[in-house]
Amino acid sequence: MPSYSRHDLADLSAFAAICRRGSFRLAATELGVSTSALSHALRNLEARLGVKLLNRTTRSVAPTEAGSRLAAQLDQSFGEIGEALSELGRYRSGPLGGLRINVPRDASRLLLSPVLARYLEDYPGVKIEVVVDNNMVDIVKAGFDAGMRFGDTVPQDMVCTPLTPPLRWVVVGAPAYLGRHGTPRKPEDLLRHACIRLRLGDQTMYRWELGQGPQAHAIDVPGALIVNETDMALEAALDGIGLAYCLERCAEPHLRAGRLRRVLDEWSPAGAPLVMYYPSRRQLAPALSRLIEAIRGANGLPGAIDA
User: What angle, 0 to 180 degrees and rounded to 10, lies between the N-to-C axes of helices 24-31 and 35-49?
Assistant: First the structure.
C-alpha cells in the first residue's frame, strides 16, 4: 500500500470539494482558501500521484476518468470519517461505552457495591469492568481508565479526586479475646498481644499506625497470622485469634452488634481518603465523571467535580 502524508489528505479533501462543487471558486469559498492556492494544491497532488485528475478550462472543470473513480471513493471514505466523528458526539453528550477500573477489595465493598445498581440503571449505555486487586498497578499500561486507592499511595503524575472524607483506622478485638488477654491501654501494649498482621500489595508487612503528629507510632506488631485483606482479618478477630487493625467503616457492623470492641480508641488516626485516580483531567469521560459523582454523593461529599 502506498504511503501518504497529511499534505496528501488535505489535498485530497480539496480535490473532493472541487468535484462536489464543480468549481474552483466555489470549492475555495467552502474551504476558506484562495482559488490560486487551491489550484496550486491540485497541481502538486497530480504531480505526486503521477495521474491527471481534472480537465479544466477558463470556463469549466471536470474530473478525468481516474479523477471520477477517485472522487467516488473519497466521498465514501470521507462519509465514513464523518459518521465516525458523529459517533464520538454520543460519548460527549452523556455516559456511554466501556469503563474499566482497578480497585482494592475494601473500596469495591465500601464504595462501588453500594452505588452500582443505581448507576447502571441510570446509565444503561455504560458497561463497567471492575478488577479487584490489592496490588498497585500501572493503570495506563494495564489498560484501565481509572483506579481507586488511598490518596497517599497514588503516583504523583496522576489526577486524584477524593471519594470519601479522611478515613479513620481502628484496632478491634472480640470481647472473648479481651477477656482472656486484657485490653491494651497504650500502643506499646500491642507488643504483648496476638495481632493479625497485614501484608500489603507490594509484599511489605504493614506497621500499625497509631496516633498523629508528635505522638504518632508505627508498630511492627507480633502475631501468628498474616493476611492480605480486611475481611479475613475481621473474621479472625471475631474468632478470637487476636486484634485486628482496619478501616473503622469495615468494622462498623460488628462494632454496632457488640461482636467487636474498639481498643486504643484515643490513638485511632484519621488517614488519607480513598480517591479515584486517572491520567488526565482533560475531557474526562462522562461515564467516569458520573460514577465519581455517585460515589462522592453516597459518602457525604458534594457530587459535582471539575472534569
Answer: 100
Per residue in 198-224, pLDDT tens? 998 778 899 999 987 778 889 999 999
| 185 shares a domain with 161 | no
65 φ, ψ (degrees, to nearest 5): -60, -45
CB atoms within 10 A of CB 195: 25
C-alpha span between 5 and 15 (Å, rounded): 15
Pairing between β-strand 159-162 and β-strand 270-271 as defined by DSSP bridges: unpaired
CA–CA distance, 9 with 184 (Å, rounded to integer): 75
Q: What integer pLDDT is reported at residue 307 of this predicted model?
A: 44
CA distances from 286 to 9, 50, 76 (A): 32, 47, 31
Through-space distance between the first and last CA atoms of the chain, rounded to whole angstroms:
41
In this structure, are 214 and 138 located in the same domain? no
User: Are 151 and 278 in a shared domain?
Assistant: yes
Q: What amino acid is encoded at 233 in this protein? A: A
Torsion from C-alpha of 106, 109, 112, 116, nearest 10 degrees: 170
For the beta sheet containing 159-162, the strands, ordered from the edge strand earlier in sequence to the opposite edge, are: 126-132, 97-103, 146-150, 274-278, 159-162
Which structural domain range is residue 290 located in? 98-165+273-299
Give the up-direction half-sphere exposure of residue 55: CA atoms within 13 A in the CB hemisphere. 6
Handedness of CA 80, 82, 85, 89 (dihedral sign): negative
* CATH number of the domain encompassing residue 227: 3.40.190.10
pTM for this entry: 0.69
| Residue of higher predicted confidence among 285 and 112 | 112
Q: Round the average pLDDT of the chain to a whole number and report it.
A: 87
